[in-house]
Amino acid sequence: MDDRCPLPEDLVLNILLRLPVESLLRFKCVCKHWYALIKSPSFIEKHFHHKNNCARLLVCNLKVAHEGHTIVKSVVVSLVPEKIVPGVTPEQKTILQLPRVSDFTCVAGPVDGLFLVQKKFYGDDVCLGLWNPATREFWPLPPAPFEIEFFFSDHDHQFGLGFDLLTQDYKVVWIRVFWDEPGQSVHPQVYACVYSSCDNSWKKLTPEFNASCTLSAPLDSTYLNGVYYWLSRGRDEIYSIRSFDMGSEQFGEMQGPDIPSELWGSLTLRGDSLTMLAGDPGKPMTSIYDVWVMNQEEGSWYKIHTVQPQIVAHWPRGFWENDKMIFEINETSQLVLYDPTTSEVTDLGFQLDLSIAGCWVFNYKESLAPIKRGIETQGQDNAVEQIEHFFDIIPIDRKPLLTVRRTIRIKSGFFVQTRNFV
Amino acid sequence: MASSSSSSKTGLKKMLTLKSSDGDEFELEESIVIQCQTIKHMVEDGFSLIPLQNVDTKTLTKIIEYMKKHAEKTESNKEEIKNFNKEFVKGSFDDQFELVSAANYLHINGLMDLLCQSIADRINNKSVRAVREIFNISNDYTPDEEEKVRDEHKWAHEGGEFDESLD
Fold it and tell me: Would the ipTM clear 0.85, i.e. be above it?
């Protein structure tokens, strides 16, 4: 028999931390000790932050297609390799493909490699799910306890996904603004709930802020050190920052950067800093963007640089490697990477559907983080099936027997979506 | 002014002796050996003969080879060092484990990093059974328990062919 001593624990750890998520999930089968090690929160955290676990671009591309009188959506989620060679379209890896779904509204995150997905937009219909693409775990959230009256109409909503550092709990905060008594004097009301993944339940919150403020969705995740941030704009058009503390479950407000109200602005994360991108997007060759970064201790904002991309009409979609920016190109519907130091434009190889606000670009690192803490995980392996079920994949041979028309709102304007019932 | 700097100016290099667990002695320049944090601390404490009870001659020879090469590291020979590293990690798993344990004991961070990465790369596509053999781990699951753990992430076991070889 072999008399070799096994390696000391710290060396085994040092080796395992360098492996990708898929291999680690397989190696849970090696022995009970490795199982416990790979499942431990401290391992999961170290693995997520390990230098080998590089950030990559994850792109969610939503398209609509007309099939006769019906509209069918399709969603493709792809990963771009960590090294993007300037001028060379990278080879993307598809990680999720939903060819015909009746609905897909949005995807938000990531926080520790987890995403929040949404289907439907109105009233009680809205469904949310948490998804870890690396472990292929998916968890549909229970319905939130919004008491929606028949006369309410959805005006706006925002999500925030974050982590309560004290209780080690993933939380989702959901803010909804409803207009009540439509046609008379308008009374926008703000409601909010928070979901805890430990309890798998929602709790009602009392958001003490004015419904006339509009919160805007960030370019990427804006969760940082236990707090989620949104860009807010009141009737006075002045930008400020709203926040939600995942631990204390309190909303907060703070000053935004001093930006002229006519400029467009959006929040994102850039490295470990809350960042605001402000500018006049869309104009060919002459758009100018300012990048502002918040000092977390002082809460003050600094302009760190200005970018004037020498490209045709476009819309900003995010940052890559601190200084590079991602744009969608209006005319060609391409997604491109722009390097301001060399002015080089790299096509990322996506064909977008600009008729719908359906492209999300994230800085993503894979993670072992479990969604279902304390919830029975058995028999929940096949996430693809669960996601397909969640988004209601329409089989090719399903014949529409009854067509119900519904209206859903997208980024700019309205369009009619038809839904088929069999 | 400082005596240590004047000695290097005159070309008088301070030498140290490393003694393996087999009793073999290796004489080396201090400037090479201080890559190793454990020895560096002993040198600072005034030792010049350093007994290494946990490192045998075979392993120590390899480690000295590594330290000598890496002491030559400059801006211009990066490619050469890269090729050296590539050759250095080519041994069997047993040899790599001996080396990484010694590097751990001696606190040679660069070598630890190199070896752990190489081992990780080599086991990444191995089967569960091969990994058990390589790490000399006995399977403490009952067949039922193992099946249950496999079922938690079935897809991770179905991603193509896994390497059953032990090298």
Answer: yes
